[in-house]
Amino acid sequence: MSTLDLAIRILPASETVGAIVTGVDLSQRLHPGTIQILKDALARHLVLVYRDQDLAPDDLVRYSRQFGELDPAPLSEWGRQCLPGHEEIYLISNIIENGRPIGALGAGESEWHSDMNFEKVPPFGSCLYGVEVPKDGGNTGFISAFAAYERLPDDLKAFIEDLSLKHDATTNSGGALRKGHVAPTDLTVSPGEIHPLVKVDPETGRKALFLGRRRYAYVMDLPIADSEALLDELWYHVTELTPSWHHRWRVCDLVQWDNRWTMHRRDPFPGDQRRLMYRTQIRGTTA
């Protein structure tokens, strides 16, 4: 461990998810020992917050790549909205230029979800960097998928143990249709990848609830009415009974999360207040 590593402090933000990291400058090339400390912290806390990080786009990309290969910016309702010259930096913004938004998701609420769960191999995680933040709203909330599962009643755990969920591929977390898609009319044949409702962390053996997002989801092999009732019950446990932690943004904050074992949401904010975020997405390696 280097002398610089000794300056790192990791303070839990809540009992179930999140930690504030101080004593590290992500604009610099980090010692391998420092990177391992941060990887261990992410595995333990699932979400890490770094305040006051003055990052150029190349700094954000370099840090993110310490955790894996990066995906290009995903398709939104306006196509692929990335930072010019950086296809791996996804713009999330409500700013309008030349009659169209420069980034995705606007100023509305983004409901609880995990990212790109409709893919065969969802992403490992993401880093989100605050370039411009609104004065009011726009906070990002997180839930541990481990905590969500562990708080379910035993009979419900037993019932969902071997069930699988089809994750809708047609809409984004803001509820807008993705480019080239139409709203499903029959959930049994709608597009989306199928994943177990209960996932197991191969490193710890802990079980997690893998819901992805609510809209157009379907529990395989159940009548649609039964699928809807079960999902309503599970989502009630997640959104009403599972502890969450919300991050209040400042300019130059970087928030990193493990997408495999968390869910997140965004509060709405006034549309006349600018918000510009840079996001990188770290490619997953296993389903």
Automatic annotation (TrEMBL):
GO cellular component, one term: cytoplasm
Keyword Zinc-finger: no
Keyword terms, alphabetized: Dioxygenase, Iron, Metal-binding, Oxidoreductase
One example GO MF annotation: metal ion binding
Gene3D superfamilies listed in its UniProt record: Clavaminate synthase-like
Source organism, top-level taxon: Bacteria
Any Gene Ontology biological process: sulfur compound metabolic process
Domain TauD/TfdA-like: 12-280
Record PANTHER family: ALPHA-KETOGLUTARATE-DEPENDENT SULFONATE DIOXYGENASE
Similarity remark: Belongs to the TfdA dioxygenase family.
Protein name: Taurine catabolism dioxygenase TauD
Organism (species): Acuticoccus sediminis
Lineage of the organism: Bacteria, Pseudomonadati, Pseudomonadota, Alphaproteobacteria, Hyphomicrobiales
